[in-house]
Recover the amino acids of this structure.
């Protein structure tokens, strides 16, 4: 688990520094040796944790989609971090009457516009939800091998 968290967090950090790489990495027909080593290492980590070959494929696709999807969504945000979320959201909320969009207004005013909000903090929460669910799919006889 700790290895998967480390790898996913590292990939997200790199993609956040190089937004242009998100589309490029997934569009290549011939991945380079570094990409192949990364794929192989993640697959090996999943197999050593006790996942079957089929569940390894499922887990890899889920983790890969989450990391790239989060990085893509983060890159598209109209704010750049905790110091700018509230100032970007405030004018947007003026266009969103609470009676028409009660849940959007509630989330934005009570969570996003609060001091210290950082969309990036959502990454760890989502990754943990995914890893918790994946851990439950490891066959019983190998559950003890799962890294914690």
């Amino acid at each position: 688990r700790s290895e998967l968290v480390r790898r996913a967090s590292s990939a997200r950090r790199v993609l956040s520094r190089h937004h242009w790489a998100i589309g490029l990495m997934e569009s290549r027909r011939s991945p380079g040796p570094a990409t192949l080593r990364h794929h192989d290492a993640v697959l090996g980590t999943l197999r050593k944790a006790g996942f079957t070959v089929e569940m390894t494929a499922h887990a890899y696709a889920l983790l890969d989609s989450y990391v790239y999807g989060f990085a893509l969504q983060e890159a598209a945000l109209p704010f750049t971090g905790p110091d700018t979320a509230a100032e970007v959201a405030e004018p947007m909320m003026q266009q969103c009457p609470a009676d028409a969009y009660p849940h959007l207004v509630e989330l934005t005013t009570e969570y996003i516009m609060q001091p210290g909000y950082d969309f990036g903090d959502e990454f760890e929460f989502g990754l943990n939800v995914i890893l918790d669910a994946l851990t439950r799919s490891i066959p019983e006889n190998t559950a003890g091998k799962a890294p914690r």
Observations:
- The longest helix spans residues 53-76.
- The chain has a mean pLDDT of 86.
